[in-house]
Write a structure and sequence with these properties.
Number of strands of chain A: 17
Number of helices of chain A: 12
Structural class of chain A: alpha/beta
Helix content of chain A: 25-40%
Radius of gyration of chain A: 22 Å
Oligomer: homodimer
Shape of chain A: elongated
Strand order of the largest sheet of chain A: 1-8-7-6-5-4-3-2
Order of helices and strands of chain A: HEHEHEHEHEHEHEHEHEEHEEEEEEHEH
Chain lengths: ~325, ~325
């Protein structure tokens, strides 16, 4: 991803919400990365403490946290997101330190932000904040989260192209007044699959550090690119129903599920763990159901015969961000070099 | 629940995985509760540190944790679950301290344990552990988790009656050899709804401490019994699509969803928060979708008009156990007396 960004003259500002780990952050430093994205003030504080000095909080400012944001802006170069004139007004009144902001644009996902055609509202935000000269307009930021609902590469690229086109129009409209404004986009599926970054200045993919089953099913990565597994102890085996019980449930993996290539609802793909890597068993066992701590793996009888109580099995998660968030909290994080 | 247990001559051994809180645990002490259930060794340690001296770990023993279990059995009266002769053999060999065990029975849920009719396997476990005189057979334990998939009270009670009947037969078969053996059951839906505890010695409901939307939809509680809400800041309002953006997502609520009375997929019911309670707005807004930190509430235009950025809205969770687990980790737990 770092090479791709370089090749296209883009700033890569990776989203660190996927790993939330200072150690993994160091790998990015090795690639020359100096600017990062996070999704909460708490996460921004964590990475600021770990030496990161240029941070975008890619979540529309929660005005209840404005004092914390101002304190943090004293320590690092901070970019925040604004999507409403009301929040803009409060920022204009309260912020007394150098801070930059993006206007959060909704380019089709329908989650957060202003639609790019609503230039009246965008103009109003810029004018409101302009009262406060310490707060600088940095540009437009969007997340094409609807690519996560795509079923194949073509669909991802169609969403990307349509969303980008709307953003480029917006950018061009404001470029004469703000010649330095930047356009920041870049979810993992489209950043991985596209080669058309015309008009884009910055990308913020995050999930690509591990990828996961969801990315694989979307077509955003090959299977061998999945780089995170949850090691789960086998607690019981049930030959009579071709199932294995593991200690591994919703408090470790989250309840995110996917539909696999055989139309099974799955909470994870099972892999055999070796010392430094893993393999998919030929019969492709999968995590069929989970509750708080229990996981039930559906298996072929041949695979079941090879497993005994106390073995460790790996689970490739459906959504690595949520699994990493849960395991970080549980202190269960092990990095294989 | 404490009164109901007393009335029926049952031991109430509440499941503390729902709240995982020493403070909430104190409320149970006030009701005379001295015995508790947890779902992990880690949780058993936490409550042992907080003065609980009689703990059942209601998860089939993970043999990789046997040393921890033995250490803990030095400090408190500990009951573990066994469901396989292999694990029984290891326990017989490794345990050198007074410990009790239940045999985990699968009475129809199909998750963990031995079916009650497989008395040969049950006998084998008892004989295996019997080699070690410090490990005592306490009885049979089952969790009717399939009641969580019921759609109404009648279905819950049908599952309960059928499952209990199978267990009573099992109990009676072993009662002459083990006159002190007990039968421990008691998921929240059936423990709340039934009044037939004939043959049952102990119940272990946990979720009832808060209940949640899922219990409400099953018919296990009335709406006013739901006793936990996540307070979420309003970050933006979107009149053009009748939606509100809150700071509240999968890392706070989990991705558990339910289908509400209007056939909407919902991640939570929205309530207005007052100082010491909450109310459901007349137009019944609900949490329509969530991602890692974002939540989107679907609202009626009238409700939207009453909300401004920075307000707090309450979310009644679909599954309170998972929400409490996440918020405990985030340190975001506030108890209203």
């Amino acid at each position: 991803m770092a090479n791709k960004a370089k090749q296209h003259g883009l700033v890569l500002r990776p989203h660190f919400k996927t790993h939330q780990s200072a150690v993994v952050g160091e790998w990015f430093k090795d690639e020359g990365i100096k600017q990062i994205t996070v999704s909460s003030v708490q996460m921004a504080k964590y990475f600021a403490q770990n030496g990161w000095e240029d941070i975008t909080i890619a979540f529309p400012l929660n005005i209840r946290e404005i004092d914390d944001v101002v304190r943090l802006a004293n320590q690092v170069k901070l970019n925040i997101l604004i999507s409403s004139p009301e929040t803009a007004q409060l920022v204009a009144e309260k912020v007394n330190i150098s801070l930059s902001y993006f206007i959060k644009i909704d380019a089709g996902y329908g989650r957060a932000g202003i639609v790019p055609e609503n230039t009246e509202k965008i103009q109003r935000i810029i004018e409101t904040i302009n009262q406060n000269k310490s707060v600088a307009f940095k540009g437009f930021l969007a997340h094409f989260g609807n690519t996560y609902h795509a079923h194949n590469k073509e669909e991802v690229l169609r969403i990307y192209d349509e969303s980008k086109e709307r953003l480029i129009k917006l950018k061009n409209r404001f470029l004469s007044d703000f010649p330095n404004l930047i356009l920041s986009i870049g979810d993992t599926p489209s950043a991985t699959l596209t080669n058309d970054f015309q008009g884009v200045d910055e990308i913020r993919p995050g999930n690509f550090v591990y990828y996961d089953l969801m990315q694989y099913y979307i077509g955003a990565c090959t299977f061998d690119k999945i780089a995170v597994a949850l090691a789960c102890p086998v607690v019981d085996v049930y030959p009579e129903r071709n199932e294995i019980l593991i200690y591994g449930g919703a408090v470790h993996l989250s309840k995110e599920y996917s539909i696999d290539y055989q139309s099974n609802k799955t909470y994870g793909q099972i892999v055999s763990l070796n010392e430094n890597n893993w393999q998919v068993p030929e019969t492709k066992p999968y995590l069929k159901s989970i509750s708080q701590e229990h996981g039930i793996i559906s298996v072929h009888p041949d695979f079941l015969k090879s497993i005994k109580i106390g073995d460790l099995l790996g689970v490739l998660p459906v959504h690595s961000c949520l699994t990493a968030d849960l395991m970080r909290q549980n202190g269960g994080f092990l990095i294989l070099e």
